[in-house]
Design goal:
three-stranded antiparallel β-sheet, 9 strands, binds inosinic acid, binds magnesium ion
Amino acid sequence: MAQAGESVGPVLIYARTIQARVRELGARISEDYRGKRPHVIGILKGASIFHADLVRTIDLDLSFDFIAVGSYGALTKSSGEVRILKDLDESIEGKDVLLVEDIVDTGLTLHYLLQNLQSRNPESLKIVALLNKPSRREIEVAVDYIGFDIPDEFVIGYGLDYDQRYRNLQDVCILQVNK
Ligand code: IMP
Ligand code: MG
């Protein structure tokens, strides 16, 4: 019998598929921002690995920064209450900001962050998310670039965690809950 607790379940997206998609996103972003210098902001900690891979596929002069947000509440659910744990180091006023997120689930985190960042007067503000769970959306957010639409499963790996674990998996896997 399997032990109670959580473990790594089936692979949802293989590392090589992620890498190919990241290169496509980078190519599109490079075209769309041609002649500009995007300021690429990663949302810690989940998007750190996606951010690191993505910026290296963007063939433009760019800068980057990080912001950390947390939501109060359960491990696998978003409560909608978002707070900034680590703010940006630099002002984004007048910059072409590209916000890099790991996954859009209910949309509450991004909705909050967008409002917050928009009030700092960037020249433009776009979002790229590696994963999107459209069936879970509670609030509309316009995501400009999406890596993969996925079903309503809790996923781990490639930066995504369960209780701070599994971020280092190369593939995106489904969290298995053993009863
Ligand atoms: P939202 O506010 O519900 O859109 O949730 C966004 C945040 O919840 C993401 O940035 C993740 O940190 C976390 N999250 C949502 N779904 C998952 C998942 O399937 N695996 C890991 N983290 C998730
Ligand atoms: Mg996150």
